[in-house]
Each structure stands twice: as C-alpha cells, then as structure tokens.
Amino acid sequence: MLVPPSSSDLLGSIDPTKLTRPRQFARTAQPSRNTDTSLWTETPAERQQRIADEVAGKRRRAVDVDPSDEVEPEARKRRRYEEEVRRGVEEHTRKVRGPTLLEQHERLSAAKEAEKARTGEEDEPPVIWDHSRDMALGEG
C-alpha cells in the first residue's frame, strides 16, 4: 500500500537555491533583426535627405522595396531550377496518370448530353405529385 509523502518530505526535496530566484518568462525570444525601422526612427533631416535621394534616383523608395528583387543571383538560379523541376514533374504526372476523375466525369457528362441532343430526348425530372393520380378516390 502506498503512503502519501509527509509535508516535511516535500519541503526537504525542494532546492532552496531555486526558491530565491524570481520566476520570469524566458528571455530567449529575440525580435527579428531584418526589419527596417529607419522610417520610424528617422529625424526630419534624415527624412529630407532620403526623399531627395529617392527623387534623384540614388535610392529606391523605402515603402516600395520588394525583397525578392534584391536576391542574389544564386538564389535566382536555384528558384529557376526548382521551377523547371516542378514543371517537369507536373508534365510527367499528366502523361503517366491520365485524366483526373473530374476530367473523366466532365467527358462522360458531355458524351451523355451529346447523345440526348442527338436522339432528341429531354431530361425531365420525375413527377413528384400528379393531381389525377394522387387525388383519385379509391380508384386504383
């Protein structure tokens, strides 16, 4: 049979050095460093200089800068290669697997519609309520 621990056993097992330290959240989360905060912290003189540089064409507008434009050529080559591989895989998949279920269904539906148009049949829904049949009193 198990015996619950006594209160002295609980207090004896706690490390007293850890009790004196304040308990806080971990400080490991660092803000991202690649964001540009210069627009938020610039002085009026820096702002005037930045606008003059943008107008003169020395710098790009800080708001319209696209990070993908400044990517190094190796990354562009890698992206182009991955795109070619993806296209090749899609083409191979199309050749090997054949049509999808949706394409098969559309082809079958189009064939049925063409057959009905050729024979002159009209697809009418079944009659749910027929007055003469349903209102007949005991006749049939």
Helix fraction, binned, reads 55-70%
> Rough shape?
extended
Number of strands: 0
Beta-strand percentage range: under 5%
Q: Return residue spans where pLDDT drops below 50 for at least 5 consecutive residues.
A: none
N-to-C order of helices and strands: HHHHHHH
Q: How many H/I helical runs?
A: 7
Alpha-beta content class:
mainly alpha
What gap, in angstroms, lies between the N and C termini?
81 Å
Mean pLDDT across every amino acid position: 80
Q: What is the radius of gyration?
A: 38 Å
Q: What is the makeup of the main sheet?
A: none
Question: What features would you describe in this structure?
Answer:
The chain has helices at 7-13, 16-20, 38-41, 44-56, 73-97, 101-119, 131-134. The chain is extended and about 95 Å long. With 140 residues, it is mainly α. The protein is built from 7 helices and no strands. The model has no long low-confidence stretch (mean pLDDT 80).
Summarize the structure.
The chain is mainly α.
Task: Furnish the topology, listing elements before pairings.
Layout: H1 7-13, H2 16-20, H3 38-41, H4 44-56, H5 73-97, H6 101-119, H7 131-134
Defining key terms:
about 140 residues, mainly alpha, 7 helices, about 0% strand, extended
